[in-house]
Amino acid sequence: MLTVSEAALQKFDDTINTMSESPDDGRCLRMVRSEESGLALSLEPVHNDDKTFEYEGRTVLAVPDAFADFCEDMQLDIDETGSLTLA
């Protein structure tokens, strides 16, 4: 199963606060397909089949069930430059 570091969850929370006019509107960062990089994050509502990750009681990341096999045994983290890593 995908694991997400505390640092990444905090960064997602900060990003939602910056991107959303109303951070409590029920949207979170959702993993989506991207033609450029394969995967991207988009500010969207959670879908019923998503695996969700919380930070301080708020859902900050949603991963569609379709990505579950791809992300199995991987970790989403922040590197020393502040960039996300999935390995």
TrEMBL record:
<protein>
    <recommendedName>
        <fullName>Adhesin</fullName>
    </recommendedName>
</protein>
